[in-house]
């Protein structure tokens, strides 16, 4: 790729520039070179996209049976599977992430998620509910499950295609039409879905994709009166704004927000297995993961051992570009998404040092030139009041905190505004179940790190959000249940 390529909005089945002609640059994080010019949607483009989605919702899409919708979603899955390596390469370029990680994790998950929800499209059954009738007259009472309407899907940059599909697949299965708003830091691969949507034969307007700035394109989408539901993944700060904006018009919301996942390591854990899992949970995708296991709570008797092994693991990680040879995710790491984000992560590192945490890995050696790299970094002697123990870094930086008892571990884990996910490492089944039950999070992984699966609910509590992606619960969030009572 030598010159920059255009990435256009996709509205009513057409790839179009922004009406204003406005664009923004998107660079490759591994090299810093601008490769893409992206259409920057404003309110007028968003309105056009929502109107197209509304027309499709009232027209072509609602005319299709659930089975027909399911076949189209299956076709989309087949097309994506056939082009998986091309999409992995595109994602790798726009995210600065090794393509092999994407081929191992994101792409299979995208295809599986489409297939899982395709299977639900013809199974949206209501219920019959017996009652005592109405004023002496017997009644037949039943419910219908109906799509909520036009849905706004607002996605982040850290797993842009996967998260777009987590939302798109259940929305389409439910019979909704959508406007996807991509992240300004990762619009390219989601934009490339447009060609697949055409090829799969989705009617124009069923899926629209707009690119642009959050406070402009994103906010206009949230405010649009024809949008009935917003499914958002991103920061807690923006999630709060969206929740407030949606409340005045009673739009439904699903908010998948930030995290500060604890990984609790008990002294009886299998440390060989645990250390690889801890490193992966901490450094995969450069730590730019909502579920990143960045709070390492380690039982004091194994503290030094875990510190040494994890620091060695961090020091061994190679920094690579998007064209890296395939390797497991705890062996290599790519670049951060942007210079602004890398600087933000560096500020967290500087503050941890200033607050007295001890750095046991990170900072050593030259970084690859051009791109936005940081060494995997580990701090110990972190206390619960330090910023590093409390704030989401969203980068390859871990904080190790010791604990003595199970009660202390649970209290430390729950002493956090976030509640997305957690890991527990122990050989004792009773400990695993007892601790899992007491953690204030949406998902617990025992002796593994955050396995995502289309069949398992994914979503947080506390400041990590509201509602679920994935599983049958995600499907429910795109449906209304209407009650019909018929006097007999
Ligand atoms: P972000 O909140 O900055 O942006 C997310 C999206 O919101 C982008 O598309 C952005 O353009 C848009 N946006 C920004 N301001 C807006 C506004 N005022 N109105 C409407 N839309 C607006 O988040 P990010 O930096 O892209 O992603 C990182 C965050 O996402 C982290 O906090 C991470 O934990 C979270 N995340 C959560 C999950 C989860 O499943 N819980 C998954 C991935 C990422």
Report on the architecture of this protein.
The protein has 488 residues and is an alpha/beta fold. The protein folds into two domains: 5-257 and 465-487, 3-Layer(aba) Sandwich (Aldehyde Dehydrogenase, Chain A, domain 1); 262-453, Aldehyde Dehydrogenase, Chain A, domain 2. It has 17 helices and 24 strands. The protein has a seven-stranded mixed beta sheet with strand order 16-17-18-13-12-20-21, sandwiched between helices. Strands 9-8-7-10-11-23 form a six-stranded mixed beta sheet, sandwiched between helices. α16 links the parallel β20 (421-425) and β21 (443-446). The longest helix has 17 residues, at 66-82. The protein is globular, with a radius of gyration of 23 Å. The protein binds nicotinamide-adenine-dinucleotide.
Output the CATH topology of the largest domain. Aldehyde Dehydrogenase, Chain A, domain 1
Q: What is the CATH superfamily label of the largest domain?
A: Aldehyde Dehydrogenase, Chain A, domain 1
The secondary-structure class comes to: alpha/beta
Q: How far is the N terminus from the C terminus?
A: 69 Å
CATH architecture verdict of the largest domain? 3-Layer(aba) Sandwich
Which ligands appear in the coordinates? nicotinamide-adenine-dinucleotide
CATH class value of the largest domain: Alpha Beta
Cα gyration radius (Å): 23 Å
β-strand percent reads 15-25%
Portion in helices: 25-40%
* Tally of domains: 2
Strand order of the largest sheet: 16-17-18-13-12-20-21
């Amino acid at each position: 790729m030598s010159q920059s390529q255009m990435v256009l909005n996709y509205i009513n089945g057409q790839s179009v520039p922004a009406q204003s002609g406005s664009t923004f640059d998107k660079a490759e994080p591994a090299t810093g070179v601008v490769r893409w010019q992206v259409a920057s949607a404003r309110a007028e483009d968003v309105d056009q996209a929502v109107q197209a989605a509304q027309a499709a919702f009232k027209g072509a899409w609602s005319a299709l049976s659930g089975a027909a919708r399911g076949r189209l979603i299956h076709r989309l899955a087949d097309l994506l599977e056939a082009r998986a390596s091309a999409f992995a390469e595109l994602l790798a370029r726009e995210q600065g992430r090794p393509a092999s990680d994407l081929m191992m994790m994101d792409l299979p998950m995208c295809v599986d998620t489409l297939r899982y929800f395709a299977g639900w499209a013809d199974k949206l059954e209501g219920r019959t509910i017996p009652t005592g009738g109405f004023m002496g007259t017997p009644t037949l009472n039943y419910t219908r499950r109906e799509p909520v309407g036009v849905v706004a899907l607002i996605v982040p940059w850290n797993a842009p295609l996967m998260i777009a599909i987590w939302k798109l697949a259940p929305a389409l299965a439910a019979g909704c039409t959508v406007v996807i708003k991509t992240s300004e830091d990762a619009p390219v691969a989601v934009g490339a879905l447009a060609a697949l949507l055409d090829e799969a034969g989705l009617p124009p307007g069923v899926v629209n994709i707009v690119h642009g700035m959050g406070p402009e394109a994103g906010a206009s989408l949230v405010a649009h009166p024809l949008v009935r539901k917003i499914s958002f993944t991103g920061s807690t700060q923006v999630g709060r704004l969206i929740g407030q904006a949606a409340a005045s018009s009673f739009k439904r919301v699903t908010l998948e927000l930030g995290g500060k996942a604890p990984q609790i390591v008990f002294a009886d854990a299998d440390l060989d297995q645990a250390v690889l899992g801890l490193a992966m949970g901490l450094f995969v995708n450069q730590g730019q993961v909502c579920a990143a296991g960045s709070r390492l709570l380690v039982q004091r008797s194994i503290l030094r051992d875990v510190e040494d092994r994890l620091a060695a693991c961090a020091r061994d990680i190679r920094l690579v570009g998007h064209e890296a040879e395939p390797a497991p995710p705890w062996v290599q790491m790519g670049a951060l998404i942007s210079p602004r984000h890398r600087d933000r992560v560096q500020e967290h590192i500087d503050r941890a040092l200033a607050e007295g945490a001890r750095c046991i890995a990170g900072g050593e050696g030259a970084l690859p030139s051009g791109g936005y790299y940081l060494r995997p970094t580990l701090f110990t002697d972190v206390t619960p009041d330090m910023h590093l123990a409390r704030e989401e870094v969203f980068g390859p930086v871990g904080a190790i905190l010791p604990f003595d008892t199970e009660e202390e571990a649970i209290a430390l884990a729950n002493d956090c505004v976030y509640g997305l996910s957690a890991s527990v490492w122990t050989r004792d089944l009773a400990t695993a179940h007892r601790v899992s039950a007491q953690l204030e999070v949406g998902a617990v992984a025992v002796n593994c790190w955050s396995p995502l699966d289309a069949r398992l609910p994914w979503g947080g509590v506390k400041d990590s959000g509201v509602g679920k992606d994935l599983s049958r619960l995600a499907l429910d969030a795109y449906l209304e249940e209407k009650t019909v009572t018929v006097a007999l």
